[in-house]
Input
Amino acid sequence: MNISHRISEIIGTGSDGWDHFRRARAMKNAGQPVVELTIGEHDTRTDPVILAAMYEAAKAGHTGYASIPGIPALRAAIAERITRESGVPTGPDNVMVTAGGQSALFAAHHAACDEGDRALFIDPYYATYPGTIRAVGAVPVAILAHAEDGFQPRAADIAAVAAGAKSLMINTPNNPTGVIYSRNTLEGIAKVCKDNNLWLISDEVYDTQVWAGAHLSPRTLPGMAERTFTIGSMSKSHAMTGCRIGWICGPADTIGPMTDLATHTNYGIPGFIQDAALFALSLGPDFERSIGAPFNRRRAISLEILAQQNVVRYAPLDGAMYTMLDIRATAMTGEAFAAALLDEEMIAVMPGESFGQAAGGHIRVAMTVADEQYADALRRLIDFAARKARTAD
Ligand code: PLP
Output
């Protein structure tokens, strides 16, 4: 029997860069001392106080079907948080609770695009973006943000392909680059969206990991609230990746239809997880800062080590949990560099090419091991790059 093109073609052709991750895991499982700087997951687990709240909720009987768009108290808490942080009045009717940010990205594209519609996104991108667009039957169109622009996308490049498209997906603070989009960039993007009647799908799952400058949610810009879906998640802000809990925020009249979608996919998020998320949000910004603190410390380590060399260049380390390094001085691709680094130094990183064309010749280093181990791995990585650059001369 055949399966549909829609799902057999979710993943594009060619290497997805996850080969390095899988190979590194296999080596580690076989007992080799691999330092894994690959996936964006904290090196700490979900805090026991959140787990205790989850257990209490389950014991209290919140194990049945839960309200599909989310329990009212959680929708209200998310809406309050968005109002507080963005200043845009937001109510529970603007919010649907989802199975992580990923499920919200899927719902947003389902809401924005019909079969065959063009959906724009910025390259470098988070690995699932093109597949998420294909999964709803739309056609992904990548717009390159260039290293020489500090990976800030140019509004003119978006405008050049915007006519007739339905949506534009952006991500700030950005994975994989760690860049935060400036007000100027976001105002340019907002204008293109308004001029071309595009939905803006704004992935803000790293909004608590801002190390320099400020995060601006584009929903706050004039005329944008009615055409923006904001994607949030407790994965990165609260180290709750395995709980699969996040949200989509959009115009109130979109939440009902998206709830219909949720009814026919997840049928809601477990009540005890939602109660735990509600408790986690009640811990406030100090708790969120404590979850992000290790990445802020390791960013400082990165900056200190990188300042002492001139082999690799780096994107502004303004946010998120990644250091994006330009290794073109070695004359290697990101793929070749990552493969050799794993073989020769037992350090696993992601090749830039796995995040699109614009990140070719780069590697993404996830700052997800203990500080001293991170510093040691980064120093070894730079020595390795220096050796490769010398043989390239
Ligand atoms: N968006 C970005 C930019 C990400 O980096 C990730 C995960 O790494 C996600 C969305 C999805 O995260 P989750 O579904 O765990 O919320």
